[in-house]
Amino acid sequence: MKRLAFILILLVTLLNNLNAQERWNKEKADAWYAKHDWITGANFIPSTAINQLEMWQENSFDPETIDRELGYAEGIGFNTMRVYLHSLAYKADPKGFKNRVDTYLKLAAKHKIKTIFVIFDDVWDAKPEMGKQRAPKPGVHNSGWMQDPGYPASNEMATSTELKKYVQDIIRTFKDDDRVLFWDLYNEPGNSGKKTESLPLLKNVFAWAREINPSQPLSAGLWDWSFTELNAYQAQHSDIITYHDYEDPEWHRRVIQLLKSHDRPMICTEYMARTRNNRFSNTLPMLAEYNIGAINWGLVNGKTNTIYAWDTPIESGEEPLEWFHDIFRKDGTPYRNDEVNLIKKLNLEYSK
After folding, report:
1. How many other CB atoms sit within 10 Å of the CB of residue 31?
2. 231 membership: H or E segment, kind and range
3. Structural domain boundaries in the chain
4. Glycoside hydrolase family domain location, by residue (predicted)?
5. What is the pLDDT along the chain (352 residues), one digit of tens a residue?
6. What is the CATH class of 25-350?
């Protein structure tokens, strides 16, 4: 009898572990989404940081600026920020890194803001290095942003115990923390010409996160509609559907209608590029109409230089006629008052 009881307990434990590693069902995802006000906010990095490493390294971590600039976000009714982490900052100082993440979360909570944390990233510089980060190139969009883990590291380390430890330690530490809205496991996998080379790491980061079984949902945003294999994996393994869209409203509406076929809560985790006719005025009301979370790129004009468009640098560094991203100047003055008034209005109208 004792042996039978032991076997039954073992089977139940195995079944629970298997269930814990499965994608959330629709009912659980819908219930999670229904608990929150309409999710609106921005991708956030303090204006004093050129990239994720400068944000998170001990000697350049800047809680004073973070506090002030999150206050700008609170002032227009934003309730969510999407924030990139970096595995090199963790590797250099795991305990200190997690303490700084907790400090950030305390500051965000002070401003009634929840956080989406991004784990890996395939965009921009493929050779991230710790230490003092380079100065911004005048007039160049995101001239110092770093991939994580980089290239060829994203291939060579796809199965590494080092990356697994990083992912699982971070998620385990904050797995039941209601200041974390959800985990965005991989930003734009396949970017920078990698395409399906990123699939092994994408699969593993989902597997590593599922083993921890956080209380928050997992996702990885769709962003390039030609990446059939990556898109299928991301959509089929994400608890909620997240995506990026920098196109005009007509195209964006078609994307929404197609993604609605997944019958899951949806959040647009990157949008708003003024010179591509993707603006607050024509996109934010549409996202509100469809009850889709809305996270634009950029809060404060700073060292990332994202007021400049991706492919049209201004060598002189003078301010462009029209900003590409971002909402505020460093002193908290809005770039456009009509935009912040619209954001405030919609946030108030669609909050519970």
Report:
1. 12
2. helix 228-237
3. 25-350
4. 76-299
5. 444 433 333 333 333 344 447 999 999 999 999 999 999 999 999 999 999 999 999 999 999 999 999 999 999 999 999 999 999 999 999 999 999 999 999 999 999 999 999 999 999 999 999 999 999 999 999 999 999 999 999 999 999 999 999 999 999 999 999 999 999 999 999 999 999 999 999 999 999 999 999 999 999 999 999 999 999 999 999 999 999 999 999 999 999 999 999 999 999 999 999 999 999 999 999 999 999 999 999 999 999 999 999 999 999 999 999 999 999 999 999 999 999 999 999 999 998 6
6. alpha beta
